[in-house]
Design goal:
Layout: H1 2-18, H2 20-39, E1 49-53, H3 58-65, E2 69-73, H4 76-83, E3 90-95, E4 98-102, H5 109-123, H6 144-174, H7 188-213, H8 221-245, H9 249-272
Parallel strand pairs: 1-2, 1-3
Antiparallel strand pairs: 3-4
Helix pairs in contact: 1-7, 2-6, 2-7, 6-7, 6-8, 6-9, 7-8, 8-9
């Protein structure tokens, strides 16, 4: 029994390593995990961006750099062009004997007031050495956005692993070998378990790799195992449902993508609804 399951699994692995789509599915989650590390801000990172003229007032630029992301430009026109772009960017330029703040008008009031406060503190001569600050984390050491994206990535792993199972089943249907299972030494149970083992292994490998890449390896191992087991079962269901009901690869791929929408809805519900309703998600 185990030998027959291993034979089915080994055959699927050989086929998947020779084709482009399974290889892309394997590599994609790890690339997304690296991208999450690159784009998500730290828990104490600022979202205030300020544009200043290069070599205009180095002391002021250094002061602003303690509280905001400072970007330097050659002249005022370049700063104005940068401020008028779609993202949130404020400009600090000299007009007469004083410095003014350039804004496009669509910036949030918090960002604008924060920049005004930094400017006022610098002009009054406030120094970091004169300030005592205690940082209270309130139990949050990881940005909420990063946790949200990693949860979505783990669900995506289940969907992609299910797609690999579906592709393997479709290949059997295309080669007309699926109907021949009844006359082979491989039983239906061994065939199903062998096909499922491919998705389970991919979920285990990809989920573990994504967790370590994104830095969540210090989370409770029991909870991680529960998540991985749940996603493995989910990938089996997705793979067999789509593999049996689809007639070609394009139909299976489209169905699997649509199946990700209700899964993503569970994450959105957990993030958006109030505490009393979160037990449903």
């Amino acid at each position: 029994m185990l030998k027959k399951i291993w034979m089915v699994f080994k055959r699927d692995i050989k086929v998947n390593t020779r084709e482009a789509i399974p290889l892309f599915i394997i590599i994609l989650p790890m690339l997304l995990a690296i991208g999450i590390n690159l784009i998500t801000p730290g828990i104490n990172d600022t979202t205030v961006n300020v544009a200043m003229i290069r070599n205009d007032d180095k002391e002021q630029a250094a002061y602003f750099n303690n509280f905001a992301h400072v970007e330097f430009f050659d002249n005022r026109q370049a700063i104005e062009d940068r401020v008028m772009e779609r993202d949130s960017m404020l400009g600090i330029v000299k007009e007469g004997e004083e410095y003014i703040i350039l804004a496009q008008g669509n910036e949030t009031e918090t960002v604008l007031e924060y920049t005004k406060l930094i400017k006022a503190l610098f002009e009054k001569g406030a120094r970091l050495e004169d300030v005592r600050t205690d940082i209270v984390e309130l139990g949050r050491e990881i940005p909420p956005l990063k946790k949200l994206m990693v949860n979505a990535l783990l669900l995506l792993n289940a969907v992609l692993a299910g797609m690999i199972i579906a592709l393997n089943i479709l290949e059997e249907k295309t080669d007309n070998t699926l109907s021949a299972v009844n006359v082979t030494p491989v039983s239906r149970t061994a065939f199903i378990l062998g096909k499922s083992l491919t998705g389970i292994v991919f979920v285990l490998v990809l989920a573990t790799a994504c967790i370590f890449i994104t830095g969540f390896n210090e989370v409770d191992i029991v909870k991680i195992l529960l998540v991985v087991v749940a996603t493995a079962v989910l990938s089996m269901m997705i793979g067999f449902i789509q593999g049996v009901n689809s007639s070609d690869v394009m139909e299976a791929a489209g169905s699997v993508k649509l199946m990700f929408l209700p899964l993503a809805g569970s994450i959105a519900g957990y993030e958006l609804v109030t505490g009393g309703w979160q037990v449903l998600f």
